[in-house]
Amino acid sequence: MDRLHVKKDYPLADKRPELILTPTGKKIDQITMEQVLEGNVTIDDCRISDRTLEYQAQISESAGNRQMAANLRRAAELTTFSDERVLEIYGALRPFRSTKEELLKIAEELEAKGAVLNAAFVRQASEVYQKRKKLKGDK
Q1: Residue 1 has what pLDDT?
Q2: Domains of the chain and CATH, by start
Q3: Cis peptide before 11, with omega less than 30 degrees from 0?
């Protein structure tokens, strides 16, 4: 498939709904209130998939927004992690919450699970926090 473009493919739900699948494989038009009430839609059916986030990244790039595309690709990597773990990592990245070693351990975990963009982000944060004295114990 060709890369997606903002002018021909955005918004995806209107112009390319066949591309939007939930992590469980349901199509977007299968997520209806009727299906929810009948018990045919679960919370996992309502989550965004890594593939959909990649499509959104391609659209963002085509519109000239590379930073948004990078953010969407990092988000795509995190779709395999539990919400709880994502929130724990987010909390650990707040200034003064983690030591450099703790952040590097998180980066190793992310990389081991295929989240290489996020691992690089956490490593970079550990370096910046060290330079700016924002690590746990620096106060």
Answers
A1: 67
A2: 1-80 (no CATH), 81-139 (1.10.1510.20)
A3: yes
Of residues 31, 34, 25, the one with CA closest to residue 13: 31
- In this structure, the chain runs to a length of 139
pLDDT of residue 139: 77
Q: What is the mean pLDDT of the chain?
A: 96
Residue 114, Cβ density class (10 Å: 0-12 exposed, 13-18 middle, ≥19 buried) = exposed
Tokens (6 digits) for 54: 């990649």
Whole-number Å distance between alpha carbons of 10 and 64: 14
Determine the Cα–Cα distance for residues 97 and 135; give it in Å rounded to an integer.
7
Measured N-to-C along each axis, helices 116-131 and 100-112 cross at an angle, to the nearest 10 degrees, of: 170
Cβ 113 vs Cβ 81: under 8 Å: yes
Quick one: pLDDT band at residue 2, thresholds 50, 70, 90? confident
Within 13 Å and on the Cβ side, how many CA atoms surround 36?
A: 9
